[in-house]
Amino acid sequence: MKNIVIFASGGGSNAEKIINYFANSPLARVVLVLSNNTNAGVLEKAKAHEIPTLTFTKEELNNGWVLRHLAAFNPHLIVLAGFLQKFPSEIIAAYPHKVINIHPALLPKYGGKGMYGIHVHRAVLENNEAESGITIHYVDENYDEGNIIFQQSIALQGCTTTEDVAAKVLTLEHEHFPKVIEQLINETM
Length: 189
Ligand code: GAR
Hints:
Elements: E1 2-7, H1 13-22, E2 28-35, H2 41-48, E3 53-55, H3 58-62, H4 65-71, E4 77-80, H5 89-94, E5 99-103, H6 117-126, E6 131-138, E7 148-155, H7 162-188
Parallel strand pairs: 1-2, 1-4, 2-3, 4-5
Antiparallel strand pairs: 5-6, 6-7
The structure holds glycinamide ribonucleotide.
Glycinamide ribonucleotide binds at residues 8, 10-15, 81-82, 102-104, 116-117, 120, 170, 173.
């Protein structure tokens, strides 16, 4: 049984999909949800599923405190699901090829610092893109630049607001993220 740990900063709809997907899986389960935001909706979702949660300050993320607590849960895979702070290189180094992120666009387009959530969708819309999509990738030292594991595009036909784009992209995330995690665990662990 592999241990999945999730970092999230917001509502956590992706985290919840992953929790549910693996709830009865013989392969893996979510053992811990961490957040930098004590008001994040993801914490309530985790508690409702009786999954331990941990919140931390920026300092605790970067001074080894989070890394020490993580170790106690023996993570096989660390999943960033709407985690909006820079992920520390110490944690990446401690878990090589075990930290992955989902980005709500087709990287390398619309990635980098400041490109998250609604900012991404606004830029996509302003550039009159015919399509957007999702990217699941390994996390390295630079924002949104790690090796790509999976991408899926979707036509933006009929999308006139950033909310329209966000909703379409989120549907794709929910559909694919848990399955890609499952495949990754099956193939690499
Ligand atoms: C998701 O769309 C995810 O791709 C995005 O935040 C949202 C979180 O939604 N992540 C980024 O923009 C990271 N750069 P959720 O909290 O409902 O899962």
